[in-house]
Batch of 3 targets.
Target 1
Amino acid sequence: MARNNSFIKLEGTLDGLTFYKKDGQSYVKTKSGVTKSRILNDPAYKRTRENMQEFAGGAKAGKALRQAYAGVIKIVADTYISARISGLMKRVINNGTGIRGARELDLVAHGNLFMDFEFNKRKPLNAVFFAEYAAPTLNANRDVLTWTVPDFTTGTFINAPEGASHFKLVLAAGLVSNYTYDALQQGYEPVSGAENGLGGVSYSAAIPLSGAVGSDTTLTLDLGIGAALPAAVASTGAIGIQFYQEINGEMYVLNGGHAMRIALMG
């Protein structure tokens, strides 16, 4: 891979060279000499095919997690969240049972790998929100989450972005099934598809960034399952803070400064 310093900025493939952009920079690399057919059929690439299958499984489960948090992810996440989640899902697979290329993705057993996952790696929650609080809790069915934050002084315990006049505390949740490799489908499939990718979000009232909040803040989020979740479904919970600017009585969400992390795997 090399950086393209020419004033001509191309994108695409030309004469065996691939031109592309990343992080605002232009790069060029040579086209791989290994054909897709060889990778899929040559015994020498068996390990590569195994890795490809498991990476695809991790990406599929990662998509379900992002879908579950769709209500907040566009506001609080960085541009690399898809890759970071897929990478962690692959680590879950690495800990799974079975043969290489078809190891189980057991998120229920290995959900600890996602604990404290930051939706924006450059804006961790503990760099924005310093108040004391306990982790959110789950009910017995694992479909209702509760988070309580004791009263605190906003000016002391919040690092607010410029222009913010208010904030909201956020409690979000997502359900993700374990995945197994299906030889007939030639890919990973959720063990419990009905719950897979379901999620929700709950917000506090808009709180001014001045003085004390005035009382404890309790958020409750009911995912509406109404029964015990299947054992193969992981219940995840995330906590965060979003910032707003009040203009003529209306609250407008800011473009940045927000933070959220996964604080519960149950």
Target 2
Amino acid sequence: MALISRKIEFPIKESVDPNTGSLSFPIHQTSAFLMPEGERYRYSRELNPTVEELGRIIALLENTETATCFASGMGAISTTLLALCRPNSKVLIHKDTFARTYKFVTEFLVKWGVKAIVPELGNEAFVREAKKADIVFLESLTNPILRVYDVEAVAKAVHSNNGLLVVDETFATPINQCSSDLGADVVIQSLSKFISGHNDVIGGSAAGSKHLMEKIDNFRRTLGTTMDPNTAFLTLRGIKTLKTRMSQINRSAMDIAENLGKIEGFSNILYPGLMNHPDREISSRNLKGYGGVVTFDIHIQGDPLGAMKKMSIITPANTLGGVNSTISHPSTMSHRSLSQEEKKALGISHETFRLSVGLEEPEDLIKDLKKMIH
């Protein structure tokens, strides 16, 4: 259930260290704590002050009662689903999910008696199937084809069956959409991406009600998918500039998406802010900004990595969300574990590329992208 207030002042103030008055919350780089004085924390796999502070800030961003942090985004996803699922649980997931998430549900969880439901692409089929599910997992902006799922409609559908909605909001970020306000029960972030924003940490988070998060956090402590305090410190640093970064990234990505469609050699431009996007009505209603990822097709001769290496500003890399722009080839990178049939069903071809827009000038990025087709 969403909280009443949504106003957040940026940059968000960290808690001041009571012993030193430090304006930046300190890194508690320790495995254990003096007893009985350190009874609250005891052992850093279970709870660490720096990681706890990051959880407090994440909960503010997501407008939830509480949040817990993990060693990776996949750690957040796997731990959350393992905590919530039971044998015979019906889990609904869409085909155009990050490949490892999709495989985790459809290949790993099914071995433990979970029933995976995978409908046809699009909101209509997904909302219909959500009425039958115990748990729905969706990405509010999908990776890499950037469909926009109607979180509010899906939440109403799954809640009608007393089910739960888990939303991965990594691409949107809480700056562009607050899924808890739209009915999500748990909101997932890969903190490695836009939240931290500097391509120097691996981390994840899950945020929700105290009741649900207690279950998830207990699983985290047992599974050991725990974030280290140095990662928490770096993520806290990144959050300080999150709103400013996303404002610039949103504008630049929109500019690039609009202009790529006018350049010969670029086709099938996918971006939620474009008027021809299949989910334009939903994106214009729910998103405050359309994010920093643009997907497109270009016809290339030969090796895609060779084409990407022609650029001098944009870096070929299997990641996104940093201050420096990166580009990936989903077919051989993020979605390489899918079969050719699965890729084809999603519209991912050998010619599909995913651009993560950073803080460079958009006109410079467009000039750099043109090098791929020459």
Target 3
Amino acid sequence: MKMRIEKDSLGVLRVPERAYYGVQTARAMVNFPISGLTAHRDFIWAGAAIKKAVANVNNELGLLESKKAAAIEAAAAEVMEGRFDDEFVVDVYQAGAGTSHHMNLNEVIANRACELIGGVKGDHTLLHPNDHVNFGQSTNDVFPTAMRLAILRALPQLLAQFDALEKTLHEKAHAFTDVIKSGRTHLQDAVPVTLGQEFSAYALTVRRSRDAIAAAADDLRELGIGGSAAGTGLNTDPRYPSLMVTTLSQLLEQDLRPAKNLFESMQSMRPFAAFSGSLREGCLELTRIANDLRLLSSGPNTGLNEIILPAVQPGSSIMPGKVNPVMAEMLNMVCFQVMGFDTTVAMAVQAGQLELNVMMPVIIHNIMQSMTILSNALKAFTERAVGGITANTDICQHYFANSLGLATVLNVLIGYDRAAEVMKQALCEKKTVLHILEEKRILSKEQISRLFAANKLTQPGVPELQGG
């Protein structure tokens, strides 16, 4: 491999001649051979978007000559398009605050910009990664700004998957409107419900989780770009922060706004904790729903078997014909992982000190991973599981007819204590509540038929013995 020699403040280092990254990136590769994981595509895009906007603003302010600014903008645009993704080689577990990744970005853009104005990679006399690409910036304001923009870019896809799941659950709720079954509380027989009512609750839960995530993302629209190293804005033009927010808003077609306090925007990672927490809370609900579907589909001969999940793959290497609720199991595992990612984010958020939180790289890595796997999991779960659910109406009807929860209807008619005796007798004699009521002549057949009509039992109302 042909090499070139590059120099930084620590000395010289050999860099592959073909590489667009430079000496500081090469040092980071030596220092941090940790996980093999590198920056998320959306985070690379976000950083390049900032560099493109910075070059434009600095040129407008007369701080960067037009030729260099145009080359930087063009190079940054190519990075945004994904042309140089392979050049972002710094491990996600790296130097505090993300300086290594930031210099990786500066070097790639600088070397590509050099080529665009007739130079060669590594010729920093023409265009320098620090002096030109990074003019008026610091990792400390660029990195958290890129974090915000990356999340906002990935957000629509995640919200779309929540929307799709909610829509599919609503469709199932409508399809199961007339499927009556026994409700269950404490996993014991309870008053009747319809399968449609259960699914309507799942749909609303998904909607509320989706809305909570969208609301938590709003604070991420506030950008602290222009704070420079510590929030003072040293080495920046006073007009720079507002111009950057305006330029980025137009470039990215986002509703962005300046930070109220540049010092706070670098000290506090609270918006990221809130957003990660909204993902965790959504996953708590998704886990519950997935577990309900696993329980409702359990069996088929020794479980509840009230719904049938699509068979998407064989379930056992030894038991022929076995089919497992694999899509729900997958969603469970993804949700557990997101909860773990959130714990890491929480620990990192509280670890900031004085003017800076240096744990930003692990915060954005975990949030972007959460968004990616959750979005993919919801899509697969919706399409491969929920969309194909069917109701086992015979089983649901059987459980309804045999539920001891039917005795609840008798409370206002014969009193709680006598109704409890009916329930206990039905349980002891292995008969239905309705059978005991008729056998003991507590109610007539006509009264039983009227009082225990499915459409009455699953709606508000107080039973009455009309015509009794």
